[in-house]
Request: fold
Amino acid sequence: MLAKFRAIVDDPRTERVIMMVIIVNAITLGLQTSKAVMANWAGVLEIFDDIIVAIFVVEVTSRIIVHRWAFFKDPWSVFDFIVVAISLVPASQTFSVLRALRILRVLRLITAVPTLKAVVGGLLAALPGMGSIVLLIMLLYYVFAVIAVKLYGPEFPELFGTLGKSFFTLFTVMTLEGWVDGVVKPIMEKFPRAWVFFITFIVVTTFMVLNLFIGVVVNAMQKEHEKAEALEREAEREIMHEEAAPILKEVRSLKADVAELRKALAGKT
Reply:
């Protein structure tokens, strides 16, 4: 009985059904943000939401029954469990923030789509390397922010009057959004060579350090891809070994029979 239940839970068709339910859930949650839609279809959408939550609860419960403690050893399964648990929080004012997190159920597509799962796995694998780059960029920010306060703070206190304002202004410069008219041109009216400071800052932070993020992420994703390929090859070898085992056993049996036959023929001669 448990074997049949496991076959149903692990069946790829079951996974596809859950994926469709997640997509429908994403649509209904989006419709619930429209006042016009809620004015006419609030009751229907709430019923849909309750049905979808019930399906998720049954699905996660089934996986726990089938896999037992192994379910909680898989981080993606724990993520599914937490998302579904949040969906069960009562719709009261106290828990309104948690109820708003119901949209996290859409993120279950990550666990349902292997390619998305691989991408997120690569991003998570890149976190240690990204931490070092974040530390580097913070050090660079601090150095440039202090220099900016010393150079331009007295004349432009609204931009570089304090270390906090300097950090914020440099962040807007790094994003390359309105930095010329809003920051550099007013400063260059009094400090004509200020462009050297800002161009250096942009080259170091935007073009160099941020590209390091891309390099780290791409490298991590490549390693995750290689790891996935290695697991697939190992699984294929295991399948081939299982399929070849009966044949090898039969060949050994035939060899033994041939050896006995030769002994019998040798004895008669």
Notes: The radius of gyration is 31 Å.
